[in-house]
Amino acid sequence: MTTRLDPSISALPLPSPDEVPEGVRRLWEKSREVFGFVPNVFVAQAYNGEQFQAWWSYFNLLVNKEGYLTNAERELLAVVVSGLNRCTYCAVSHGAALRHYTGDPVTADLVAVNWRQAELSHREAALAAYAEKLTLAPGEVTPEDLEPLREVGLDEHQILEAVQVVGMFNMTNRVATALAMVPNVEYHSQDRASGPPPEH
């Protein structure tokens, strides 16, 4: 397998295919076969291959597999958090995913900048508001902040998953920002019209 390693996508060195674990190489190959490119995050973080695999296992389970929230709700949280943190990589890549799951490029773009200007449902707005407080003012978060989520119909499993997704993206945003990760150019055009679902 050949993978074009562009040193401008990360502030740290990039590994070559023979420098990463077999599981990472298989993930690169699968991404290239299915989506036509390897997400830059899969290369940049694989410099520490075993740590990357551990992160990806949890991230993939939490964000991409069937869960308690819908895919669109999880991506909404991802984009709200990433926009607040000014994480270019995650805001762009998960903006593409949010466009895919909602079929709505306008809302996805608005959420990345200011979710209050997007036409969100009461449930979506409650999720976004909670994500904003946990991201920007974690020291002020109390158990009472969960009540608006219950009021819009979220159960305890969904609330816990929302908290975990918000926490995951705050961590991932910081890694991506610290390494100056650049989003793949493919994300910018994905699902502006019909197209394949994004991988992130």
Automatic annotation (TrEMBL):
Keyword Oxidoreductase tagged: yes
Gene Ontology MF terms in the entry: peroxiredoxin activity
Coiled coil start-end: none
Carboxymuconolactone decarboxylase-like domain residues: 51-132
SUPFAM superfamilies per the UniProt record, alphabetical: AhpD-like
Keywords: Oxidoreductase, Peroxidase
Record flagged with keyword Transcription regulation: no
Domain of life: Bacteria
NCBIfam families: ahpD_dom, peroxid_rel
Protein name in UniProt: Peroxidase-related enzyme
Organism: Ornithinimicrobium pratense
Species lineage: Bacteria, Bacillati, Actinomycetota, Actinomycetes, Micrococcales
